[in-house]
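Thread title: Can someone regenerate the structure for this chain?

I was given the following input by a collaborator and told the matching structure tokens would be attached. They weren't. Posting the sequence so someone can regenerate them.
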Amino acid sequence: MEARSWGIPVSRIIAGVGGGNPLASVPGTATRPTTDRVKEALFSRLESLAVIDDARVLDLYAGSGSLGIESASRGARTVDLVEFDAKASDVCQRNADLVNQLLGGKRVSVHRSKVESFLERAGDTDMWDLVFLDPPYPLDEPALSAVLAKLGPHLDDAAVVVVERSSRSPEPEWPDALECFADKKYGETKLWFAEPA
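Best answer:
Regenerated them for you:
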């Protein structure tokens, strides 16, 4: 069950080395944290796909960084949290420090950057096995598609990309480099799963 404090959902690390530890949340209403129920279902799916262990993980529009942090707790090799908002980036850093301490080494890195700029700066050898995108609602579909296109060259052949949107949002416009292989609705949240085409 999701922990609550003064009526505000408190996110936590669900499983792995850091399982049970609460995570700092971003103040205000600008970010929508992934609920623990959705996170549990998502990671159950990812574990069945065997993509977490030793993965290089990229969490774009990271918010509090909870998806990347969960990945690190469950055995990901490296995690990059990308968040531009100053308050959210600070929270990412606090949560990264927590899990890095629990893991006894720096596996999670925080990048305060716009997602587009981060991907444009990524070098030819910057590759990821698992990517989360939980963009803000105001980001329109063409802008999301452009980000997905920039991501394409940095995906391992067996990579999995997870896009989280409102269940009222249309399916993302996938670039040629990506192909959707599954989707799942959880109340107000919908997840799309894609892989390199």
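The chain has a mean pLDDT of 91.
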